[in-house]
């Protein structure tokens, strides 16, 4: 499994060097400030992420009003078409559309420290051309190059819609091409696996025709017993079940029809909706009665998502059905949603505190996922006699540093104690991390970890102590520096945990988000570089 993951990771990087990455990328943001940041950042790093020759056209579309990712996809495609028209260009076979917005509350205070833009969180991989750390969105985009190549080789024409903070490496080979994809209206990316309690609760599930790989139905996340009952009620036939991996591909024909059909919804500030799960469910419901049964099924298990959607969009079923039927009339065949199985994928998600800590921690060990994570971030596997990987860094002689990864950092005091830790892009006199931890782009004279599992990001200070599982970041608000902390033991970032100050914080996460999301992130990045390089 590791060897295959490594081959796929290298394949994506090789595609960039061979200039066979996407020729057109649309970035979907939530504000004009975001638009400026992503336009500058992705354009600067496109040589490292898409094509080394830089011949990738970057279009950034900002949503003026909340649309959800279904209407947001159509809105962004309309903006992209305008750009192509003005540039006198035609769309390539496959366009990448990456969505890079979201509140990011569950990654507080790190989201706030980077201007309220969660996918902008920097990661240890450096671009060879830009010489800049790639962020979550860059990593997500880089490792979707092989997806786009496969779709192109298979004759699919359309847009890959990808969320901007996850990298997914397939765990099984797809072959050179699958010509059936040329006649699909949409493609879902899935993992065919066995039903478990955790996956039933956390993920949507697809029912797939085992002979054609066409999607037959989608079930929303629910408890395992409820889902098992739904699955036993399937009609006779050969079916597979699979976890929805989130991202998708949709044909240009679908999107062009959507621009015409959803004009009113795109303008209405009260109407917004996502692809998952309800758009797909409408595609699979043959009649209004089928749809009514799905609504009743949700109510019976205590869920209200569909009911709330229909309050915002009372004619939801009918407008999606009209969309589906319009595509069918154009194609003169039934609507076709295909699937691509990723198998046991290598999935890197740094959007939550615990998964972030697990990702960084794995880099220091030689498990299968640990080695794959180092490959993902371009970190060599060679170690010194104490088990360290030291890259472009200065560390004191005879200090107790073992089993750690230290990149672009300076540590001065020989009394420093570091064990199975990750330190990237920082400057420190004394650093004590005897039980592990992560320090990223921080300038702290004396930084002491008083237990395992701590993460410090962009912290500034003279003396800082981090408790077990602690999180800390420094916010640059105008000319003021405010330390904001959290802990991975805090699992709920709703209610007063978000709206009121907790722990030792002077302000709430919400207040910090509101202030920092109005910050010009280009200037914010420049200030950080000045602090680190001072």
Question: Helices and strands in order, then pairings?
Answer:
Blueprint: H1 2-17, E1 24-29, H2 32-49, E2 57-62, H3 68-87, E3 94-99, H4 110-113, E4 122-126, E5 133-135, H5 136-142, H6 145-153, E6 158-163, E7 166-169, E8 186-192, H7 197-202, E9 205-209, E10 215-219, H8 224-232, E11 239-251, H9 252-261, H10 263-267, H11 278-284, H12 288-300, H13 305-312, H14 316-331, E12 337-341, E13 346-349, H15 353-362, H16 368-376, E14 389-391, E15 400-402, E16 405-407, E17 410-411, E18 417-419, E19 421-424, E20 427-433, E21 437-440, E22 443-449, E23 455-457, E24 460-466, E25 470-477, E26 480-487, H17 496-499, H18 509-516, H19 521-533
Parallel strand pairs: 1-2, 1-3, 3-6, 8-12, 14-16, 15-18, 16-19, 17-20, 18-20, 19-21, 20-22, 21-23, 22-24, 23-25
Antiparallel strand pairs: 4-5, 6-11, 7-13, 8-11, 9-10, 9-11, 25-26
Helix pairs in contact: 1-16, 2-5, 3-9, 9-14, 15-16
